[in-house]
Design a protein that fits this description.
With 119 residues, the chain is an all-alpha fold. It is built from seven helices and no strands. The longest helix has 32 residues.
């Protein structure tokens, strides 16, 4: 396995993890009132779905857009880290690390794939 394919696997795992975790957090883990679940899904998860097709096909522009969109859960996780206590703080760490993981590994994937293609 090349380092580019390893970075791709990790970035895809983190991105899909962000989508799954965002849904789980909004529905079960976040202890939200029932009337706020739809809005939370719309704000946290729907933007992640927009570049998903391109990310699955490893298109560079979609990967970069995914990194920009991953800033939403990055900030949300950071706020939970800062403001919450107990288990909610743990969920903040999970969300924060998945977002950082995608941004870092996605960046390395783009870089290493370009290096492999150009020499």
């Amino acid at each position: 396995m090349t380092r580019a394919s390893l970075a791709r696997t990790l970035s895809l795992t983190c991105y899909l993890g962000l989508i799954g975790f965002g849904m789980a957090w909004a529905i079960w883990l976040g202890q939200l009132p029932r009337k706020e679940i739809s809005l939370t899904l719309l704000v946290l998860v729907a933007p992640l779905l927009l570049p998903l097709r391109g990310i699955l096909h490893a298109r560079e522009k979609a990967l970069v857009w995914g990194m920009l969109v991953a800033m939403i859960p990055l900030l949300h996780g950071g706020v939970n880290l800062w403001a919450e206590q107990g288990l909610q703080k743990v969920w903040g760490w999970v969300e924060f690390l998945l977002a950082i993981g995608y941004i870092v590994t996605g960046s390395f994937f783009i870089r290493w794939r370009a290096q492999r293609q150009h020499g």
